[in-house]
Amino acid sequence: MSRARDFADLAGSASAGGITGRNMVINGGMTVAQRGTTFASTANVAYTLDRMQWYDTGAGVVDISQSTDTPNGNFYNSLKIDVTTADTSDNLAAGDLYNIIIQIEGYDIAHLGWGTSDAKTVTLSFHIKSPKTGTHCVTLRNSDQTRTRVEEFTVSAADTWEKKTITIPGDTSGTWQATNSAGIQLIFPLAVGSTYHSSVAAGSWGNGGNIYGSSNQVNCMDSDANNWYITGIQLEAGQTATPFEHEDFGTTLRKCQRYYNRLGFMRHQFYSSSVNSANPDLVDSITFTPMRDGPTANPYTDASYSSSGSTRSSSTTLSLGSITTTSLTATMQNSGSGAGQVKAQYYLELVSEL
Hints:
six-stranded antiparallel beta sheet, Immunoglobulin-like, 2 domains, 18 strands, Jelly Rolls, mainly beta, 354 residues, globular
């Protein structure tokens, strides 16, 4: 086969979405939801579906969930924001703000060369179903919020899925992290008070500050009948939007587990014939998918630790330590001594979000 034919096939594969690893947004299809599928009265800065963080500073309240309302049969899930307490336009204070933030790791954007004269253009594409017609915003900024770009797009029909594509020249200024810290913050606002409006014209890079949108952003929080949906978020190098990169579920899950990993049910139950309070009943090594940084580790839900025996106390303490990006130790310690039965049952949550 000729080299010309090879290149033609490669170009055709890219146009058909056949080249993997293009999308810098993890879980843009909203398929992975390790923390759960419904988040009632979602708290400020809470993570919802994997990699999707909710941020709000106003009196409005939302429920966020994983939905099966999608733009077409190629997508199975979307992120749904259901407004349960409105923040109307008349009452939207300067400091009120409601948005989804996606943190993209520096390693995943290093090839863009942002902050240098070699900065690459990127293309953002996504499907949105908004309760409001008119001007909406999406914002990109660096981790220290010194460089920001607000892009505006128009929703033509309310409560209707529409695909949006935006091409963005790379930023040749500022500091864009290329390590395991946050590289790009990608922000989808529902409503933005004037405190967070950009002083730089939409469609231009500028010295940022805490910017989330423009003054033209419609208020999608103005009614408790409003539902806002998004899926198929893709950010890729180049000036052309390729079809959304549908990964197999296992691949997307492993990528998400770099930042958050909810391990399955852990159960340890054994008989100890001679243990005293100076020695642990159990030291267990637990390994997991490599994470971005040494995680915070917490047992959650249905955790129980107990022990029994004539000279033992009624409970056992679980301690987690020697934490690395790939393993930790679980130590069970009882304050009593002598023979007895020891039991621990728990789930384990590992957190290393950006």
